[in-house]
Write a structure and sequence with these properties.
The protein is α+β, with helices and mostly antiparallel strands. It contains 4 helices and 13 strands.
């Protein structure tokens, strides 16, 4: 009985010490991280090339959710972007995709009447159901990949319905994606090799793709249900 009680108390202690979603630890605060999503509102976000947030974007149990059923029922949606723009950064977020779903997180997205879609300027970290969605047949289209450019390796994404923890770092061209605490993508966006890679991708006809050093973060509306939480940013200053 005594051992059982100690075990229960230990579990309660660990649970209490666990960091709650959409909050900053002391270490993160000291490092300069800021929340991009407070877990309660859509403050700090707006529709790409527009104002406000579509009604299919909802707050659900501390997550920012794009509700595909609401979207199909006539609710407004669309890609959403941060109010702020960022250059070099360390970005953290958790993402969860519905079965057979597809979405993504873009960076250095530029808003302008010249660009109808955020992916005309912003590279994308893929969010997808690897097991079911047909687009995942291509390695560079699988979860955690730099979409259509560099496949996530190893491919360690959790199944649909489970949270994946992501960390993305861009520092003077050096770009790294960590998926569930494992480095899965690494490149240098300032090199001729990266330019050549883009020229061989589906973005080859988009002259301003990955050309801007500063821009917004974007959460993609691909028509499927997706959740985001723990979105936080540390700007890297030089």
């Amino acid at each position: 009985m005594k051992k059982t009680l100690i075990g229960i108390l230990s579990l309660v202690t660990v649970t209490c010490l666990a960091q709650s979603p959409n909050s900053l630890s002391k270490a993160e605060k000291k490092a300069g991280f800021k929340l991009l999503f407070d877990g309660k509102t859509t403050n700090g976000w707006h529709k790409y090339n527009g104002e406000g947030i579509g009604t299919a974007w909802k707050i659900e149990e501390g997550a920012l959710k794009l509700d595909a059923d609401a979207r199909k029922g006539g609710a407004t949606a669309g890609d959403i972007v941060t109010d702020g723009e960022y250059k070099d950064f360390e970005l953290k977020y958790d993402s969860k995709i519905a079965e057979n779903g597809n979405s993504g997180v873009m960076f250095h997205v530029v808003e302008s009447d010249k660009y109808k879609y955020p992916w005309l300027t912003g590279p994308e970290i893929q969010v997808i159901d690897n097991e079911r969605h047909s687009d995942s047949k291509l390695e560079s289209h699988r979860a955690g990949s730099l979409y259509d450019l560099i496949p996530a390796n190893p491919q360690n994404a959790k199944p649909a319905g489970q949270w994946n923890s992501m960390r993305v770092v861009l520092d003077q061209g050096k770009f790294v994606i960590y998926q569930n605490d494992v480095k899965v993508v690494e490149t240098d966006m300032s090199t001729p090799q990266f330019t050549e890679m883009v020229a061989k991708s589906k973005f080859k006809t988009m002259p301003d793709f990955a050309k801007f050093a500063t821009g917004h973060f974007c959460l993609q509306d691909h028509g499927d249900t997706v959740w985001f939480r723990n979105i936080k940013i540390r700007e890297i200053k030089h």
